[in-house]
């Protein structure tokens, strides 16, 4: 473990309500990062002031300030992360992790991840499951899956990150999802661990904001080539789970909107083919589950 080194990348925009908690979680880690670059992307609150205060005390922390008026939406975050990544070029390290500025976790989070990577040499991307506040209690997010790793606290083996070309600035987002698929295309495995909990502290926005986000997710699904049958079943399975039913329908509407408009794919044909083969495999497993009488 003493030989393994990791770095952290964080894109922050107006996070003064949450970022101190995130920083304190990192400072409490049993294995500290070799460097942590926080990019304040046009923040107008006290985010910069708070981060500067910590940077003055801890040499491994750095703050970068950018005001990129040309980039918009999700692309701004990816550009900020890529800027942070370029600040690591003078370092020797084994892993890098994206870390959102509104999360917290226990003090062995990164040590445990490093141990899991050490035990599995083909593990390329890993992390914990996301928990969000619901009725005063943190509960596992519905979209959690051991087959995928939430971007909020996602650790990547350096060789894997470089092989997939890092996070791509995609119009509708999904850079973390694309990185996962690209990693599996190249023989790496992707896995979340249910015993590692990441607390997400930013409250869910209002209904209009959530629906806008879900519609964009549907457009994202189409842009990376998600199979129509898989998209339909995925959204349909989420409809009965109140209160996300309308969100699932809105996501499906975003996908259908892009389909009807024949919007271009934002990834290669090889990527689309690989992703759809994965999805068809999952659908096959779903519908070939054994019956209660033991017959298939």
Question: What can you see in these coordinates?
Answer:
There is one protein chain. The protein has helices spanning 19-27, 47-55, 73-86, 109-119, 158-164, 175-185, 207-223, 228-238, 245-261, 269-287, and strands at residues 6-12, 35-41, 61-66, 95-99, 103-104, 123-134, 137-140, 153-157, 189-200. It has 296 residues and is an alpha/beta fold. The protein is globular. The chain contains ten helices and nine strands. Strands 1, 2, 3, 4, 5, 6, 7, 8 and 9 form a nine-stranded mixed beta sheet that branches. The protein folds into two domains: 6-200, Spore Coat Polysaccharide Biosynthesis Protein SpsA, Chain A; 207-287, no CATH class.
List keywords for this structure.
single chain; 9 strands; 2 domains; globular; disordered C terminus; Spore Coat Polysaccharide Biosynthesis Protein SpsA, Chain A; 296 residues; 10 helices; nine-stranded mixed beta sheet; 42% helix; alpha/beta
Which structural class fits the helix and strand makeup?
alpha/beta
* Whole-number tally of structural domains: 2
Query: Which CATH-level-2 architecture of the largest domain?
Result: Alpha-Beta Complex
Instruction: Tell me the span between the first and last alpha carbons.
Output: 46 Å
Question: What is the N-to-C order of secondary-structure elements (H for helix, E for strand)?
Answer: EHEHEHEEHEEEHHEHHHH
Q: Look up the CATH topology of the largest domain.
A: Spore Coat Polysaccharide Biosynthesis Protein SpsA, Chain A
Strand content: 15-25%
Q: Describe the sheet with the most strands.
A: 9 strands, mixed
User: Which blocks of ≥5 consecutive residues have pLDDT under 50?
Assistant: 291-296
Q: Nearest-angstrom radius of gyration?
A: 19 Å
Mean pLDDT: 90
Going by CATH, what is the homologous superfamily of the largest domain?
Spore Coat Polysaccharide Biosynthesis Protein SpsA, Chain A
SS field, number of helical segments: 10
The amount of helix comes to: 40-55%
Give the C-level CATH assignment of the largest domain: Alpha Beta
Q: What would you call the shape?
A: globular
Give the strand tally: 9
């Amino acid at each position: 473990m003493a030989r393994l080194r990791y770095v952290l990348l964080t894109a922050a925009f107006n996070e003064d309500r949450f970022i101190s908690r995130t920083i304190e979680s990192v400072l409490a880690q049993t294995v500290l990062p070799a460097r942590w670059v926080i990019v304040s992307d046009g923040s107008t609150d006290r985010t910069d002031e708070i981060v500067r205060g910590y940077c003055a005390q801890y040499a491994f922390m750095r703050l970068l300030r950018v005001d990129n008026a040309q980039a918009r939406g999700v692309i701004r975050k990816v550009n900020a992360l890529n800027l942070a990544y370029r600040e690591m070029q003078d370092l020797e390290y084994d892993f890098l992790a994206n870390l959102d500025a509104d999360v917290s976790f226990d003090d062995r989070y990164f040590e445990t991840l490093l141990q899991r990577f050490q035990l599995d040499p083909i593990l390329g991307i890993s992390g914990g499951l996301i928990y969000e506040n619901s009725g005063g209690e943190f509960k596992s997010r519905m979209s959690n899956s051991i087959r995928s790793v939430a971007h909020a606290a996602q650790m990547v083996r350096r060789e894997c990150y470089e092989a997939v070309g890092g996070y791509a600035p995609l119009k509708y987002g999904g850079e973390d999802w694309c990185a996962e698929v690209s990693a599996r295309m190249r023989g790496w495995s992707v896995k979340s661990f249910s015993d590692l909990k990441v607390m997400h502290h930013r409250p869910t926005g209002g209904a209009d904001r959530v629906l806008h986000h879900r519609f964009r997710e549907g457009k994202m699904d189409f842009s990376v080539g998600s199979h129509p049958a898989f998209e339909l079943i995925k959204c349909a399975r989420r409809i009965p789970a109140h209160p996300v039913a309308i969100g699932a329908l809105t996501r499906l509407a975003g996908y259908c909107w892009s389909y009807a408009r024949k919007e271009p794919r934002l990834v290669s044909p090889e990527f689309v083919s690989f992703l759809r083969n994965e999805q068809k495999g999952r659908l096959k497993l779903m519908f070939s589950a054994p019956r209660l009488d033991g017959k298939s």
